[in-house]
Design goal:
The complex is a heterotrimer. Chain A is of the alpha+beta class. Chain A contains eight helices and seven strands, in the order ββαβββαααββαααα. Chain A is about 30% helix and about 10% strand. The chains are: A alpha+beta, B alpha/beta, C alpha+beta. The interface of B and C includes residues 63, 144, 258 and 265 of B.
């Protein structure tokens, strides 16, 4: 049974557990987009990244695909991780600004700006639909085609598929095309509809110190509030 | 067999073949027959000599006289003079830039003088399609010795040699073998990674073309050490000659009982087959490569589990680069200590680099680890083309970093290169002169990587796409304040948060150019100026009144008639018509065309 | 081809060595037959053939035979230069079959020059 340390807490998990499962077992929040408990992990969206090992020899991995190994030292919410996550969400928001799932993530993680031209695409290439179709619907009618920036999800040779039963599972699971953001500024990519906060404890401890989600407690308590404002203005 | 008095070694690497080496070889044979010298002179095709820029190359042994840039019409004269009358032909020899007299002997040419051949020892010396030639130079003797050693002894010898993976990451080969050997699961597989996709790099192709048996021998030794019975050589289809030669070599080895069951009369069993890849850059990444061998989409997989634990078909697999495998026979034959005597403390042996870009002598060079970049660029490379100023050298392929002049005296080894934001990679060296715009270089490589990324990781796919967008904007004169910081942030994200080696190094070109050439970015963004005069959107051509003599050469060269002026009067460029092709600047003999 | 054993491998190596040794540039003796127009007219071709035959007959693996141009002393053709390892090259003039046989026996095989047929010691430069 591998024994590992996650955010300072020692935990023993069963062999074959992924890091994400171990982290969630402890009640620590790590955001995911391409993860679904019923599907094989893909590691495409990179939101569930955590830092393993001790700095400066640490590295970033996706917790959904990384096995919980014996002796691993894991930080689920280090400063580096949170900074990277925010940039990833910012990029996602610029790609599919109309997705409510992504706008919610942005609010939750305090992404208040989008420095990229909005693309208004319809797909984030998380691969949920592909796996859903293959693993749960046993159809395998769609898949990834091309590579790099030309990658698309489509049926073989872009032709109407014979195997597709039009069950709609792909649309059901899609984070982009199902829920549309109705926020006040959806067109300008940041809707600002929900709470926008940044955990102020990060500056001091390099780790998010509480696990309330979203982290609003200390914000409302006051002591950091004025600092936060200054930082935002700067 | 009657001994021949002269062997004419014709380089038939891909470079020389495309320059017409096979025609030269036919012409040589015809001429020799005409003079009835066929019993005295042998014409032998060999692998790449590395001096590709000067191809087609021909070497006359035993005199060691080296002819270059031959044309079919030169051959009758050459054969008559050299073979019949015994007079070497200076006009066909190599003359170094800035010098007048040619250098007749290959061994005296700067390009070859500083090299240390270990992996490429047989280049230009043996006929790669004849197994006897390979055996003549102690070929398969390493295997013979390995068969008398225990697997543990072989691995120990590799460990002693300090050999590290030549594919780029530099993982100690002996340790890798040990891990794979220690796995209880069977069968085990060996893979040779010959999927070389870097633009401008051809070290693996050259080894495959010049000395295919060295790779086969290395893999058989590896099979004995690790306990594998089957191996694959993954080579891209874009290398037809390499595929043909390695296939022929495998066939010869099978016919001679060097592959199959009971190798060299022992109980060792090993089979080898060639798998051809379709030329995706990402398939050079080991986990993607294995997916491709198994017939799936070439897309990297999460490690752990490592290939040594769960590789091909979930079985332990040891995967090494072409160059690594080709080192093995000599390590076993000469002992690990011998290789450990070459190179630096942490990087042993030699490394093949493909030296390309703005240097006089481009080609393939094998040098000991720890050699200074300056020695390669100025010694072997013969300095910058046209005597221009050195600006940067990019090491390690498209995802390596660009190093400035101040790094020229840095020794080349895995650690030093990493510490300055670049990498060894598979060994590309691209030299750039002062006419090269570093922002454009970063844009070019980011464009390459954005196309070649597998697309699975959001960070790598979107991050690179956005970086390319920003870089293109900067080159087009549409950059804005904060772009450089954003680029840096994105590049770090791509590096940190992507899964495989492609993504984890993809930020290097951008990060290193920002680190060492930040002033060029600033000039593009703040002053709307390209210091190298390369980015078309940022330059305007005009004619300097005091220098123009009114010869009209520029007006004749201009493809869009944007230049006007009377004879012997100062000419003018119409900025609205000008397409900034630079044709006028090329023809002007008076430096009267100003580019700013 | 038969399956190889280790001893076969060594045999093939030694046999092939002979063919490829030329490419190494290291040999015990180097014989240069001067084959300019004058040399050929005076019979250098026959001298060359004779040397190659002798090399074959004695199964020599470390003798290099090469040709060169006119040495400028056309009246003394056919000529050849014999260079034995670590010693200065010796030029022989007015050769015939008998002389070549003797030079081969003494100088090429055993490293003893034959002064009576020699012009002198030394070699002209390549060009």
């Amino acid at each position: 049974m591998p024994k590992l340390t996650i955010d300072g807490i020692e935990v023993e998990v069963e062999k074959g557990t992924t890091l994400l499962e171990a982290i969630r077992f402890l009640g620590i929040h790590v955001p995911t987009l391409c993860h679904n408990d019923g599907l094989t992990p893909l590691g495409a969206c990179r939101l569930c990244i955590v830092e393993i090992g001790k700095p400066p020899r640490s590295k970033i991995v996706t917790s959904c695909t990384y096995p919980a190994e014996d002796g691993l030292y894991v930080r689920a919410n280090s400063e580096k991780v949170i900074k990277l996550r925010k940039l990833i969400i910012e990029l996602m928001m610029a790609t599919v600004p109309s997705s409510k799932t992504i706008q919610d993530l942005a609010s939750k993680f305090g992404v208040t700006q989008c420095r990229f031209e909005p693309e208004h695409e319809e797909c984030i290439h998380c691969g949920l639909c592909v796996r859903m179709c293959e693993e749960q619907m046993m159809a395998g009618a769609i898949g990834f085609a091309q590579r790099g920036k030309d990658m698309v999800i489509t049926t073989p040779f872009d032709k109407t598929s014979d195997i597709c039963r039009q069950c709609g599972a792909c649309m059901y699971i899609c984070p982009c095309c199902e829920l549309r953001c109705q926020g006040p500024n959806a067109e300008t990519t940041v809707c600002n509809g929900c709470l926008n906060l940044e955990p102020p404890c990060l500056d001091t401890y390099d780790d998010k110190m509480c696990f309330l989600d979203p982290c609003a407690a200390c914000e409302l308590a006051g002591p950091f509030r004025s600092d936060m404002k200054k930082k935002d203005e700067a | 067999m009657k001994p021949k008095r002269t062997h004419i070694l014709v380089c038939t690497g891909t470079g020389c073949v495309s320059a017409g080496a096979f025609d030269i070889m036919e012409a040589l044979k015809t001429e020799i027959k005409k003079h009835e010298l066929q019993d005295e002179i042998a014409v032998v095709p060999t692998g790449c000599n590395g001096f590709c820029e000067n191809g087609p190359l021909v070497l006359f042994e035993p005199e060691g006289i080296f002819y270059r840039r031959l044309k079919v019409q030169d051959i009758p004269f050459l054969v008559e003079e050299h073979c019949l009358k015994g007079r070497p032909v200076p006009s066909l020899m190599y003359t170094p830039p800035k010098e007048k007299s040619p250098i007749p002997a290959m061994k005296d040419i700067e390009f070859f003088k500083h090299q240390k051949l270990v992996v490429l020892r047989n280049r230009g010396r043996i006929d790669p399609e004849r197994i006897e030639d390979y055996i003549a130079f102690d070929g398969y003797m390493g295997l013979a010795k390995a068969l008398e050693m225990s697997p543990e002894e072989i691995i120990e010898e590799v460990k002693v040699s300090g050999l590290r993976g030549r594919g780029g990451a530099g993982f100690p080969t002996g340790t890798k073998w040990q891990v794979c050997r220690d796995q209880p699961s069977t069968p085990k597989y060996l893979v040779c990674n010959a999927d070389e996709g870097d633009p401008g790099a051809f070290m693996d192709r050259s080894v495959l073309e010049a000395d295919p048996h060295a790779i086969i021998e290395g893999m058989i030794i590896g099979a004995r050490a690790i306990g594998a019975e089957q191996g694959f050589i993954y080579v891209r289809t874009e290398y037809p000659l390499a595929v043909q030669r390695i296939k022929k070599a495998i066939q010869q080895a099978e016919e001679n009982g060097l592959l199959g069951e009971g190798i060299l009369g022992s109980d060792l069993k090993f089979t080898l087959s060639v798998v051809q890849g379709a030329g995706a850059f990402v398939c050079g990444e080991e986990s993607a490569l294995m997916q491709s061998i198994m017939g799936k989409v070439g897309r990297p997989k999460q490690r752990p589990p490592f290939p040594a634990q769960k590789g091909l078909w979930g079985k332990p697999t040891n995967i090494n680069n072409v160059e690594t495998w080709a080192n093995i026979p000599q390590i076993i034959l000469n002992g690990g200590e011998w290789l450990a005597g070459l190179g630096t403390e942490n990087s042993k042996g030699t490394k093949i680099f493909s030296l390309v870009g703005k240097v006089n002598n481009t080609g393939l060079v094998e040098v000991p680890m720890g050699i200074k970049i300056r020695e390669i660029v100025y010694g072997i490379g013969g300095g910058i083309l046209g005597g221009r100023k050195f600006k940067a050298v990019q090491t390690g392929g498209p995802s390596g970093g660009c190093l400035p002049e101040s790094m020229l005296d840095m020794p080349i080894d895995y650690e030093s290169l990493k510490s300055v934001g670049s990498m060894m990679g598979s060994g590309g060296l691209i030299v750039m002169d002062d006419k090269t715009c570093m922002v454009d270089v970063a844009r070019y490589f980011t464009d390459f990587l954005a196309h070649e990324s597998c697309g699975k990781c959001f960070t790598c796919r979107k991050g690179l796409e956005r970086m390319l967008e920003i870089l293109t904007n900067i080159c087009d004169g549409k950059g804005k304040e904060g772009d450089v910081e954003l680029l840096e942030e994105l590049a770090i994200m791509v590096k940190e948060a992507s899964m495989c080696a492609l993504g984890q190094t993809a930020g290097n070109p951008v990060l290193s150019t920002i680190r060492y050439f930040r002033d060029e970015y600033d000039a593009h963004i703040r002053e709307r100026r390209c210091p190298a005069g390369f980015c078309k959107a940022l330059i305007t051509y005009s004619i300097l009144e005091d220098k123009c003599v009114g010869c009209g050469a520029c007006a004749r060269a201009c493809p869009v008639d944007a230049i006007s002026g009377e004879k012997k009067q100062v000419h003018k460029i119409d900025a609205d018509k000008c397409i900034k092709c630079g044709a006028c600047a090329e023809v002007c003999k008076f430096d009267a065309i100003d580019k700013s | 081809m038969a399956k190889l054993k280790i001893q076969d491998l060594k045999r093939i190596r030694d046999e092939s060595r002979r063919t490829v040794l030329l490419r190494e540039g290291t040999a015990k003796a180097k014989v240069t037959v001067h084959m300019g127009t004058c040399g050929i007219a005076a019979g250098a071709r026959e001298i060359m053939d004779q040397i190659l035959r002798l090399v074959e007959k004695h199964n020599l693996q470390d003798v290099m035979v090469t040709s060169s141009g006119c040495a400028g002393m056309c009246s003394h053709e056919p000529m050849m230069t014999v260079e034995y390892r670590y010693t200065a090259p010796v030029k022989y003039i007015d050769l015939n079959e008998e002389k070549v046989a003797k030079i081969f026996e003494k100088h090429i095989l055993n490293g003893e020059p034959v002064p009576e047929y020699a012009l002198g010691v030394g070699s002209e430069s390549m060009y």
